[in-house]
Structure formats: structure tokens, C-alpha cells
Amino acid sequence: MPELPEVETVRRGMVDAMCGKSIEQVTVRRYDLRGGIPEDLADVMTGKEIRLLERRGKYILIHFGDHKTAVLHLGMSGRIRIYSDKGAVENKKHDHVILIMSDGCVVIFEDPRRFGMLYLVRAPHWQEEKPFSEMGAEPLSNEWSGQDLAFKLSNRKSPIKNALLDQSVVAGLGNIYVCEALFFSGISPSRLAYTLKSEEIERLVVHVRTVLNNAIAAGGSSLKDYAQTDGSLGYFQFGFKVYDREGHICPNECGGNVHRIVQGGRSTFYCPNCQV
DNA sequence: CCGCGGGCCTGCGCGC
DNA sequence: TGCGCGCAGGCCCGCG
Predict the structure, then answer these.
(1) What backbone torsions phi and psi does residue A255 show, to the nearest 5 degrees?
(2) How many whole angstroms from its chain centre is CA A62?
(3) What is the pLDDT of residues A182-195, one digit of tens each?
(4) Percent of chain A with pLDDT over 70
(5) Is the CB of A115 under 7 A from strand C?
(6) Can you tell me the mean pLDDT for A228-237?
(7) Which of A 188-247 have CB under 7 A of nucleic chain C?
(8) A92 is annotated as an active-site residue
(9) Which long-range contacts (CB under 8 A, 24 or more apart) does A141-149 make?
(10) A3 nearest nucleotide via C1' and CA
(11) What angle do CA A147, A8, A89 make, to 5 degrees?
């Protein structure tokens, strides 16, 4: 799925269309997404005013200011499309949930692979529920630091690549941005997490933040499935240094080239020359 | 408790 | 042009 920058881009796109407005009508076309859409979703959401849209890791929280909060996750292929009025709406095969807002604007949750999720949690104590209760720090917040990351890595025997994909270590990273951050940090993805020195961990924190911020500024990355809420594409994918660039020369011009290996069943891209 | 592999779905690009 | 295969940004579960 979209990783943190794409989810943040989607959240920002949803704010104007939804915040301060109420939901007039909810249509659920399919309930059998991963985890299942709750049967009472429409009952709970209809008529509610949206007070706040918040992101936590790769999740978007839709707060109504009452005892329920809706949780949206885009899975691997989820999208949100927004139309400013009903007349402009296109119907697509995998449109699973359609929200009509009080001003006539339409918000559609589309997800071909159905790995996405939309469900309800208790409010205001949603952070006490899984997966939020087990989630690591927000990497762009002040609560995240080299010290925090070092603590999380101190007993980890898995490769640093795998550890950074674990949402309980730090929230919101996925395959792309982990590869990119490790490249900028000059750290091999195969290094066992607990062997990183504090100075390397400090570097990693800096580069994770930089790569995420740059990607958000570019509107995220558009691979096969991801687009912004107005259908336009992010363009950060043109800035990838190593991700999906197997065989290309290393952007550091070290004389080496980008390799692909498989870790935990997923592709990792890196420069064996620059990343040690 | 931890780490790994498989499963969940559909669509796309590639090679034959 | 058509078809089968491998692969994809994530997460959860069960096993060792």
C-alpha cells in the first residue's frame, strides 16, 4: 500500500472535502474486504459531522467527536477519489464504499485487491486498541529520536531492513522508503538490527525523516496503484535512488550498481558498495 | 517472545 | 494477439 507519505497525501486531500461537513449518505457495495466492513458502518456514520482527519502510521482516522471513530487503511491498492458533485461521479468496478457529503461532494473508497480496511473503533480511547496500542512512534514527530529507535533495535536479531518494516518499531514505513533511507544512511539492509552503532542510528533517523518529508512535498509516489484524491499522480517515484532500480549505476557514482535481494519475502534494493 | 513463511486478492507487465 | 507466470506499496496468523 501506500506508505506514510502517500497516506498523508490522501489525508490532506480528504480534509477539504470532508472536515466540518456531515455525511448525508453511506453506501457499502462490498463488505468482504480484509477484516470485513462492519455491518453497522452506514448506521453509525450517517448524519455525523467530521471533526478531524488524523493520520497514525499508514492509517487514517475519521473523528466525529463522539464515541466512535472510523479507521481507514488503504492496503496495497486502495484509493480515495473525491468528486465535487454527484453529477461528476465515475463508477468503477472496485468502488466499495461511497460517502455523499452534506454539500453534495462525493468520497469513494476504491480497492481492487481488497487488502484495505474500513472499520470502527471506540473513541476517544482509540489509541488503546490494536493496532494503535502496539504501534511505534510517528517518525515525523518529536517523540521519535535516535534514542527511541536504538531502544527498539537493541534486542532485534533480524536484519535492519525487516526491523524497520515492523510497525511496532516505527510507524508508517514500507518497502520503498526503508530501501531509500538505508541507502542515504549508507547502511546495509542485511545488517542485524542490534549491531547498529548509535551514530548510525542517528543518521538513519535523519534520513528517514528527510525522505518522508521530501516524498510528502512531492505528493507521494505513484506506482501501479496509488494516486491522489483528485486522480493526479505524485511524482516522488522519479526521485528514487535505489528502489526498483536493479542494475542501474549507483547514484553516488561509486562505480557500483544497484542490487536486488529478497528479505522476508520482499525485494530489497541497495548499493553493496556504499551500504556497509 | 521472536522470526519466518504463507495467505489474502486482483491487475499488470513480461516472455514465449 | 494471447496466455501463463511472477510480482506488487501491507498485514495477520500459525508454526518452529
Answers:
(1) 100, -15
(2) 15
(3) 999 999 999 999 99
(4) 98
(5) yes
(6) 77
(7) 220-226
(8) no
(9) A144/A170, A144/A205, A145/A205, A146/A198, A146/A201, A146/A202, A146/A204, A146/A205, A149/A201, A149/A204, A149/A205
(10) C9
(11) 165
